Amino acid sequence: MAQPPHVLLFPLPLQGPVNSMLKLAELLCLADLHVTFLVTDYIHARLQRHSSFRSRFDHYPNFQINTVSDGLPEDHPRGDRFIELFDSLRRETQPLFKEMLISSESESRRRVSCIVADGILGFTFDVGNELGIPVFYVRTISACCLWVFFCLPKLIQAGEIPFNDDMDELIKSVPGMERFLRRRDLPSFCRSGNVTDPNIRLYRTECDELPRAHGLILNTFEELEGPILSEIRSLCPNIYTIGPLHTHLKAKLAARGSLQPTFSNSLWEEDRTCVAWLDAQPSKSVIYVSFGSLVNVTNEQYMEFWHGLVSSGQRFLWVIRPDSILNKDSGSRIPDDLSKGTKERGYIVDWAPQEEVLAHPSVGGFLTHSGWNSTLESVFEGVPMICWPYFVDQQVNSRFVGNVWDLGLDMKDTCDRNVVEKMVRDLMEVRKGEFLQRADEMAKSAKRCLVEGGSSYISFERLIKDIGNP
Ligand code: UDX
User: Fold this and answer.
1) Index of the ligand 1 atom closest to the CA of residue 393
2) Same domain, yes or no, for 180 and 295?
3) What is the residue with the minimal CA distance to atom 18 of ligand 1?
């Protein structure tokens, strides 16, 4: 009997992409494919220490994990200096990746028959192509941001970037977004005022890179990003929209009766005491605050958020990642009103089981950095958002949340206690009904796309078929 395809998955080594690619890996295991998950030693060590991925994947004899060096010293901050990480992957990891694939040729059962890699790791296509292994790319960002990346050459040609003033000027060179995309909504690196910025250099090649692959897998769904997906299809016709991945996996596990109550792909230790705290709060009364895995805030910004949250009078659960506050002033006294307000209505943790938190009935809002995983998790649970985007794709995502999908408020480019207070009140009190209704409608369509016959369900079936016959 023919062996099932053996897929090698290679995520970008950062929390968000690793999280969603692990979900994809499990979905592929459930479809009876052989799966090798390739991660850097650094990510592997963090997963071993903090996540439950090992015990979960022990259930799949068709799964294995391989590790590779990212070429950086142990104490390098990685995600904080992304371009260095990326250069090192290309320089140091690419030859190791090729060696690994060549050695897999000798073990006939486990011969890699297909590579599924993050599309930003373009070298995976070069290696796959050289060895005659088909490559499917995955981008774990939104389609709306990806489309802006695709349009970067056009934006430069039209002279729309670089720019240096009037951040509210509308952008004309991104088809489908002419009515609402402002300079301030472009990926953060477009603000550098310099087209030779290494980030611009990196992302402007996406429109040449991505169409080279057999297909492009996206963690989104048609009902959310349909019009933008049509634009991308004009350059990249074979797209698989299989999101939201985190719940796609849950739906497949539930259908088999093997859904476990909790599991984690976290690179930090989850503090589950916050779930017990949420259990004691009234329905939809808590705003959850988290800025993901890479955002750093200054001590001044931290204090603005804290004052705003306390003055809003709302209950809040706040994730403050260790070391995420720059120049933290640990010597100064915390004002009494902050300590008192936090004790009465707040709860602070280092890292939370976020999917579970967003699904908790006590949570009624999310103050987020608009990372794509966080956005999708919130959309799926019908939780309205206040967006405080930090960098890259988040500037685009937040514009869509605030002005296209109407799922919340975009607070970009301000960090002022009065604005925080007002927006939290607006989301949780003044306009609560309106936002919840809209979020609920979108959550319903997110659920529908995953059931048999739904858009993401069908797309995933097609992906499995195409991986078998690329
Ligand atoms: C980064 C970029 O910021 C993001 O914009 C891009 O789309 C992917 O890479 P990150 O900062 O990690 O991602 O944000 P996000 O994509 O939202 O992913 C964070 C993940 O960590 C989410 O899946 C979230 O559930 C999880 N998380 C976050 C926790 O489990 N606990 C927490 O306390 C905070």
Assistant:
1) 5
2) no
3) 16
Q: Which segments of 58-137 does DSSP mark as H helices, in order?
A: 82-88, 94-106, 123-131
46 and 160 belong to one structural domain: yes
Residue 271: per-residue pLDDT? 96
Ligand 1 center from residue 351 Cα (angstroms): 11
Pocket of ligand 1 (CB under 6 A): 14-17, 19, 140-141, 266, 290, 292-294, 319, 351-352, 354-355, 371-374, 377, 393-394
For residue 15, the CA-to-ligand 1 centroid distance in Å is 6
Calculate how far, in angstroms, residue 441's C-alpha sits from the geometric centre of ligand 1: 24
Helix (H) or strand (E) holding 139: strand 135-139
Answer yes or no: is 416 within a domain.
Answer: yes
- Residue 61: asked if its preceding bond is cis (omega within 30°), the reply is no
Residues of the chain with pLDDT under 70: 1, 107-109, 261-262
Question: Is the residue at 142 inside a domain?
Answer: yes
Q: Are residues 292 and 211 in the same domain?
A: no
Whether 29 and 171 map to the same domain: the answer is yes
Say how many Å lie between the CA of residue 458 and the centre of ligand 1.
27
- Based on the domain organization, do 209 and 62 belong to the same domain? yes
pLDDT at residue 1, rounded to an integer: 63
Question: What's the number of domains the chain is made of?
Answer: 2
Q: Specify whether 159 is located in the same domain as 63.
A: yes
> Could you tell me if residue 117 is inside a domain?
yes
Contacts of 94 (CB under 8 A, 6+ apart): 123, 126, 127
Q: Please name the residue whose Cα sits nearest to atom 7 of ligand 1.
A: 372
Contact indicator for 100, 68 with CB cutoff of 8 Å: yes
**Does any domain span residue 120?**
yes
Q: Are 424 and 309 in contact (CB under 8 A)?
A: yes
**Two tokens at 290?**
């988290």
Choosing from 148, 271, 293, 348 the residue with most ligand 1 atoms within 8 A of its CB, the one to mutate for a pocket test is: 293
Q: Does 106 share its domain with 127?
A: yes
Is residue 359 domain-shared with residue 458, that is, in the same domain? Answer: no
CA of 20 to the centre of ligand 1 (A): 10
Distance CA 243, CA 424 (A): 29
Provide the CATH number for the domain around residue 94: 3.40.50.2000
Q: Which residue carries 């895995």 as its tokens?
A: 293
Planar angle of CA 171, 172, 175, nearest 5 degrees: 110
Q: Which residue range forms the structural domain that includes residue 390?
A: 273-447
User: Which mutation among 347, 373, 395, 401 tests ligand 1's pocket best, with the greatest number of atoms within 8 A of CB?
Assistant: 373
Q: What are residue 9's phi and psi, to 5 degrees?
A: -100, 135
Nearest residue CA, atom 34 of ligand 1? 292
